[in-house]
Amino acid sequence: MAIARGKRIAGAALKNLPPAVAMLVVLAACGDRAAEFEATRLFINGQVVTVEDSLGTVEALAVANGRILALGSNREMQHYRGAQTQVIDLQGKALLPGFVDAHSHLSGVALQAVSANLMGAPDGPVNNIADLQRVLRGYLAHSSVAKDHGLVLGVNYDDSQLKEQRHPTREELDAVSTEFPVIAVHQSWHLGVYNSQALAMMGIDAQSVNPDGGVIERGADGQTPNGLLEENAHFFALFTLLPKFSDAQHRTALKAGEALYTANGFTTVQDGRTDPATLNRLAAMARERAFDVDVVAYPDLTTVALDSLIYGPLQTRNYVNNFRIGGVKLSFDGSPQGKTAWFRQPYHRPPANRGDDYAGYGAFTDADARAWLEFAYRNNWQVLAHANGDAAIDQLLDAVARARRAHPGEARRTVLIHGQYLREDQLEPLHRLDIFPALYPMHTFYWGDWHRDSVAGPARAVNISPTGWLVTRGMKFSIHSDAPVTFPDSMRVMHSAINRTTRSGFVIGEEHRLSVMNAIKAMTLWPAYQYFEEREKGSLKVGKRADFVILDRNPLTEEVADIETIRVLETIKAGRTIYRAQPALASVRPEQ
Asked: What is the CATH number of domain 264-538?
C-alpha cells in the first residue's frame, strides 16, 4: 500500500532530505495524519509508471508543494483529497517522470527556430539541391532575419539524403544570392557550406590555410575554396557571421526552443557547448524567472574567459530560478555522418578529396587534450566530452586518467557524449574512470544505412551506440536527441533505441536493442544520475519533484513498432502544467 511504502521510504531517506521535503514524507507515511496534508493536485485512474523497480506501475499519484506526496491506488489517494484539491482523471493514460534531456543544445534549437529548415523527409522538404535552393530563396524573400540582418541561414541539410549524394557548392549557394552571405549548415552541425560573399567576408580564399582542428575544402584545382568548411573552420565562420540578435530577439528565440522541448515531455533541458553571449542571456532570463523547465548550461571550455559566469555562484548543482551551470563542454572530434569523427580504422568510403587511409581527425593534440581535462578537474567542473570515433575516445580515456591522478577524490561524473564508435575493450576503462556514457541511438534511424554503406561498413556499423554492451555489464547510461541535429522528439528517441530500425527498415545491431523499461530509464532516472540529480528527479517517488509527462498510451504495453506514434498530452513541472495538447484531460471539480 502507498502508506506502507511511505513508511519504508521515510526511515531510510529523511536524514538526506531538505526539511520541507522530509516533513512531506513523514506526513505521507503517517496514515490518518496524512489527511491533514492536502494534495494540490491528484491524478487518478491512470497508469503511473514510477520507474522505481520496487513500486512498478500504480493507479494514482498525489502532489503538494511541487513534490510527490503519495502514490498508490485510487482509494489510497483519497486520503490526500481536500476541498481545494484539483483532481485530474487520467482516463487510463500513462503518467511517467518528465523526460531529462541528456544532451542537446537549447540555443541551437532557438537558432533553428529562426532559420530555414533544410531537413529531408520525414522532417523537412529538402531532398535534393534544387529543393535546398528553393527553400533558401523563400527564406530570403520572407524571413525577418534575412531582412533585418542581411543573412540567409538554413540548417540541417543532409548530403546522405540528398538525391545528388553530395554537399552543395559555393556556386550553388551563389545562385540563391550574391549580395548577401548564404550559409547552409549540415545536419551534424559540424560542417557548413558558404557562398562566395560569406567566404569573402571571412577572408577565406585560395591562400587561406586550414585552422587547427578544421578544414577548408577546395575545388578541382586543389586551391580555390569550394564553400564547404569543416569543424573549427566552420565554427569560427558561423559564429562570426551569425546575426547579433537583440536581447529581446534572443529571448524570444530561446523561449520558442524551450516550447519545442515541453511539447515533447522534457522537464530538464541542456544547452551543451554554450557560447559566452548565450550564457549571459540564459543567466539574465533566470533572473527574470523566464524558464518553465530546468536548464543546465555547459560552456565551451575553450572559450571560457576569466570573467565567465562559470566562476560565480551559478556553477552549482542547485538551480537558481530553474537555471544552473553544470560544468563545461569539450569536443574531441567531429561527426561520423559528416565523416569528420576520428577513427582508428579508415572510413569505409572516404569523402571527396581524401585518400583510402582517411580516418578523420581530432580536435586536439594529446598534450592539449590533457591540459584541458586537467584544467577542468583542477576547478572541479563536470566535463561533457564529445567523442564519436574510437580514436577520440582513446584520447579522452588517457586525458581523464591523467587528470584523475592529478586531482583525485572528487566525484565528477565526466560524461562521454555520443560515443557512437565506442569499442568493447573501452568499456572497462570507461567504468573504472567513472565516465558516464550518454549515447546516441537516434542515429540508427537517421543514418544507420549511411553508417553501414558509407561511413564504417557493415561490421563496425552494427555496434554504433552499443547500448546492449552497457546493459550486459549493468552500467547506467542515457540516450538523447542532440537537438537541433534532430528534433527533440522524445518518442523517436525512445523508438530508435528500442527498435534500431533504419530508414530502409533494416535492423542495425539487434543485440543493442533496449527493453522498453531500460529505454525509459535512459531518458529519466539515468540522465538524472548523469546530472547528480537522481535524488530529486527521474522517477516517481515520495519526496521527489513533481516533474511528469502524460502520454496517450503506455510505452510498456504498446507494440514496440508503434512507440514513435505515442503522443505527449501534457507536461508538468514541479506540479504545474507547462504544456497541454488539445483536447485536454478532464479536471474534476473539488466538490465532485
From this structure: 3.20.20.140
